From TrEMBL, chain A:
Species lineage: Bacteria, Pseudomonadati, Pseudomonadota, Alphaproteobacteria, Rhodobacterales
Protein name: FAD-dependent oxidoreductase
Entry's transmembrane regions: none
Gene3D superfamilies: 3.30.390.30, FAD/NAD(P)-binding domain
Keywords: FAD, Flavoprotein, Oxidoreductase
Residue intervals of the Reductase C-terminal domain: 309-395
Automatic annotation (TrEMBL), chain B:
Family: Belongs to the bacterial ring-hydroxylating dioxygenase ferredoxin component family.
Listed name of the protein: MocE family 2Fe-2S type ferredoxin
Stored Pfam families: Rieske
Assigned keywords, A-Z: 2Fe-2S, Iron, Iron-sulfur, Metal-binding
Entry keyword annotation includes Iron-sulfur: yes
Residues forming coiled coils: none
Origin superkingdom: Bacteria
Residue stretches making up the Rieske domain: 4-100
UniProt xrefs under CDD domains: Rieske_RO_ferredoxin
Organism: Roseinatronobacter alkalisoli
Cofactor(s) needed for function: [2Fe-2S] cluster
UniProt keyword annotation of Metal-binding present: yes
InterPro entries xref list: MocE_2FeS, Rieske_2Fe-2S, Rieske_2Fe-2S_sf
Transmembrane segments: none
Amino acid sequence: MTGIVIVGAGECGTRAALSAREAGFEGAITLFGQEGGMPYERPPLSKSDAGAVVRRAICTEDTLDKAGIEYRQNIAVTAISPETSRLSLSDGSDASYTRLLLATGASPRLLDCIGSEHAQVLRSYEDARAIFSKAVTGKSAVIIGAGLIGLELAASLRKLGMSACVLELGPRALGRAVPEILANRLVLRHRAEGVNFRFNCQIDAIASDHILLAGGECLPADLIIAAIGVTPETELARQAGLDCNNGICVDDQLRSSAPDIFAAGDCAALRRPDGTIQRFETWRNARDQGDLAGRNLAGAEARFSALPWFWSDQYDLGLQVVGDVSGAPSARRTISPDNDILFWLDADGRLIGAAGLGTGRSAAKDIALAERLIEAGVSSSSEVLSDCTHNLKFLLKCAKAA
Amino acid sequence: MPWIDACATDDIETEDLIRFDHDGRTFAIYRSPDDEFFCTDGLCTHEQVHLADGLVMDYEIECPKHNATFDYRTGEAKRAPACVNLNTYPVRTEGGRVLIEV
Ligand SMILES: Cc1cc2nc3c(=O)[nH]c(=O)nc-3n(C[C@H](O)[C@H](O)[C@H](O)COP(=O)(O)OP(=O)(O)OC[C@H]3O[C@@H](n4cnc5c(N)ncnc54)[C@H](O)[C@@H]3O)c2cc1C
Ligand code: FES
């Protein structure tokens, strides 16, 4: 086997395989996935508020067949030899590649307290089945970690009639990714739905039916979930001697430190031209980097520049975030009592980030426009952005005409 | 198939869309940058979210949920996660009204 080989049939690997073909690559494309079944989307797994866990395929078997992609499921790549361009496989055989993409994703971080094995994690369809099979009305769930997945699970389990308590080590929810104003709104909503929160909460030990907190308190629980973040899957890359630093290091063409080996998606740590390193854990990044990696595997030399973007759904609220939203926002546009858009400007007044939270998709159009304004490098002011009568599409048209 | 009077031409801004429900079905009606009118199914083919909250840029509609894009003139799915095209329906305008054949 020569040609393009992709390790990991998640969002990123699958997209890369299709994209390499779309880019006109005519040789063999092989996609290895250690999970069985058709590649599927992970985001619905934490949003299973109807009870049944959805396994939404990324594409049909037919799509892969028509694109001439050989999908080898239930096979893990166990070692890479960059010197010989060969791979070892879990079925004992080996394979060779001309160009290789590592799209190995990430794995849930595990707690390091006594009894941590009693806490379920959520990454795969099987994980979701194990969790939701225990979602019984009237029973109690304790979720460790007030991140996006923890809060989505809290919402889903509440809707299924479980009680839900969220334990968070830090002082607030969604500390890493979501602006505080919007995180607070989400927590308020969770509280109104009956979810309990414990912040600054340290766990001593876990047993099958309870959690011991550092102060000595014992919390009974029928279902215990740990949603405390992920670590990138870099083991293969490290063993092969590739540079890794909280992810497989890649340049802006998604090339690793070894010739002909690329990495993309949750497992990749992207070094920007300015030297900063960024790793993303979002669905759209997996799609966008997969798309670009596929083209570059096929011979292009495209550079990655897509803006970070993610969404979350909790109850009937939709959150969308684009660009750089660190620090205090520069402007707040209140479109209705339950729909806020926040904007971030840099020191020169250029728009660099936006975040919106509203019922349904009410924030979506403004975030889509903000994304285009950021891409176009448009400058604005807090006054204009805070004022709903200033139409964002009009700003974009003016900028393009100028 | 019957022609249905859906809305006034002025009900839709240039380069925008509205939702139109008829007989238990839901549609999206678009007005292009050059003031032509088009009609597609209302729901995204990915997760059945209504496209009415989405953004129209040129001849594309971007789904408000996970930003799949479609060419609303042909219904063609242009960007993942959508891989199934939208159905499109004939449109004509008459005396300031938009009629769709569904
Ligand atoms: C429950 C949940 C909800 C989420 N919700 C959202 C959301 O609402 N919005 C959002 O933006 N993002 C969300 N995400 C994040 C998003 O799903 C991920 O960013 C995305 O899946 C990353 O894609 P990936 O292909 O890089 O990695 P993965 O999806 O992890 O895929 C990697 C694949 O590679 C396989 N693999 C690894 N090593 C090997 C090997 N050696 N050999 C063969 N196969 C291998 C793995 O088994 C896996 O199937 C969510 C994630 C989860 C888990
Ligand atoms: S529902 Fe339209 S892109 Fe997902």
